[in-house]
Amino acid sequence: MALHRSLPLPEEGDLTRGFPDRNCLLQYLRQEFPAAAAIDGQLSPVIGGRKAAELALRRVDPLAYGRSRNFLKGAVTQLSPYIRHGLLGLAELKQWLVDQKRPWRDQEKLISELAWRDFWQRVWQQFGDGIWQNIEELKTGHSAESYGDSLPLDLRNGETKLACIDAFQRQLVNTGWLHNHARLWLAAYVVHWRRVRWQMGARWFLQHLIDADPASNNLSWQWVASCFSAKPYVFNRANLEKYAGDSFCRSCAMVNSCPFDGSYEQIQGQLFIPIQPNTNKLNDNKLRAENSNLANHNLGKEKLVKPLLWIHQESLGPANPLWRAWPEAPGLFVFDRGCIEDGQIGLKRLGFVYESLLELPLVLRNGDPVLEIQAFANRCGCDGVLTQAPLDPHLKRIIAALQQQLPVVEVACEPFVDLPSPPQLQRFTKFWKLAEPLLREQFINE
Predict the structure, then answer these.
(1) Model's pTM, two decimal places?
(2) 409 has which bridge partners?
(3) Cα(221)–Cα(235) distance, rounded to whole angstroms?
(4) What confidence tens digit (pLDDT) does each residue in 314-343 have?
(5) Crossing angle, helix 428-445 and helix 104-127, to 10 degrees?
(6) Three-state helix/strand/coil letters over the chain
(7) Strand-pair partners of 336
(8) Quick one: which of 52, 123, 200, 256 has the most CB atoms within 10 Å?
């Protein structure tokens, strides 16, 4: 993505854009964002930016992914940080797979996993901040009030003496990325074995993960916990050894008293209280998307004469339609000081975003987004704001506050799948039943 546009003359408070190496970037970020550095003080080994995203995409083998994705050493894509921040768009990835001209069966698993992400986003769009609350009743037999409200210190520090759990904690904290199967295992341990509310684990993940997608993160935690699924997710030692190998068990201090030993029936009997079936059926209408495609392709050309482009954390790549439509408009990204100082973001994720922004012709600021955007509009003589329509309710609140002072035009990206009618979002299987034939047709027609 080659974007060439002039930047306004620098002013006091603009963040630095040039660094000779990653170590200099790290030192600068530690000074500028001490609250994020207090959570984790290093950069992730995963490089940020569109160039790194394209390199990662070229390494993807859809067939190998489908065959081995559940294994910790399998051919996973590791594209989630780039998808999360818009460096790779879902529609773009779908077209990339179409262009491979491989049989549908060779790519179906990867397509379905991208559809899962689209599904999660639609649920987030429907519920907003409600994804932090139980969507359904738990199916564990335990009341929601019986779960703990804090993450145990030994778990947070990776000192549980369970080799697998402590290894997952170290990878999460040290790299900012974790294999999806490891995320499920770790989440199940937090919720079911340690009886901690899933929200505590979800916040912990969002602090450290560089993909940090609240939709995929929170709703996956709810899936594990059983408040957005038909039953709680658990695993046993045999499942762990099948997909992770036996290295954890061979080095584990708890090998002779492993809490994961036993059949699924035995573990479920130890962890859960039997409940009557079908007592937690969800009303289908509760999760029916009102706007299935979330699209508005009005580029604001008729409303604004000299807009500024507000680029936020969901819109860092070429899937953002505003880059091409307004090549001369000045662009701004604001690091949200309030969220950072509240301890919501670790340095690894912040560094990944910052590294990605260095490839873009933007002014970077750190502060209150509403005040910074208003000041930037005055600085550049802009008559309004153009931005990619966000999913995050926090970003939507920023837009609502801005609209008290400036016109704001939101533009949606191309949808992953263009559905003819609002889908039921109760379960992915219902969504996939509607989406799969439309996606398959695109592969056949190419």
Answers:
(1) 0.93
(2) 386
(3) 15
(4) 999 988 888 888 888 999 999 999 999 999
(5) 130
(6) CCCCCCCCCCCCCCCCCCCCCHHHHHHHHHHHCHHHHHHCCCCCCCCCCHHHHHHHHHCCCHHHHHHHCCCCCCCCCCCHHHHHCCCCCHHHHHHHHHHCCCCHHHHHHHHHHHHHHHHHHHHHHHHHHHHHCCCCCCCCCCCHHHCECCCCHHHHCCCCCCHHHHHHHHHHHHHCCCCHHHHHHHHHHHHHHCCECHHHHHHHHHHHCCCCCHHHHHHHHHHHHCCCCCCCCCCCHHHHHHHHCCHHHHCCCCHHHCCCCCCHHHHHHHHCCCCCCCCCCCCHHHHECCCCCCCCCCCCCCCCCCEEEECCCCCCCCCCCHHHHCCCCCEEEEEEHHHHHCCCCCHHHHHHHHHHHCCCCCEEEEECHHHHHHHHHHHHCCCEEEEECCCCHHHHHHHHHHCCCCCEEEECCCCCCCCCCCCECCCHHHHHHHHHHHHHHHHHHC
(7) 367
(8) 123
Amino acid identity, position 414: E
- Per residue in 265-322, pLDDT (tens digit) is 999 999 999 987 654 445 444 555 554 444 444 554 447 899 999 999 999 998 888 8
| Structure tokens belonging to residue 211 | 């993909």
One-letter amino acid identity for 178? L
Query: Are the CB atoms for 232 and 274 separated by under 8 Å?
Result: no
Residue-wise pLDDT tens digits, 56-96: 999 999 999 999 999 999 999 999 999 999 999 999 999 99
238 CB contacts (<8 Å, ≥6 apart)?
none
End-to-end CA distance of the chain: 25
What is the crossing angle of helices 198-208 and 163-175, to 10°?
A: 40
